[in-house]
User: Fold this.
Amino acid sequence: MSMPTLICSIFALISCIVLLFIKKQLVKPFYKSIWRAAFIFFSAYLLIQLIVLFRWEFVLPPQRIADTGRNFAFITGAILAALITIPIISIDLILTYRKIQKSKNP
Assistant:
């Protein structure tokens, strides 16, 4: 079992739970956009890490030599989750900005 993948999966799960608890405290639209982006990032990261962990534990047999793909999977997962999150937060921030502008100028 790859310890970095397991540790990062636990970290992402705890982060999602913490984000769910602080959701009700946010009142400003931009803070809600940042919250959505963080939740999407950690959810995507957790999903990627669990898929990787499942694949390596049950589908592919472990190798006897050092497997750098397994050792750096947490970095690759973070990059993929960021690539998923960046367009989503960009669109969300643009829509939030337009919504605020419309409410100020009826």
Residues 11 and 46 are 9 Å apart (CA to CA).
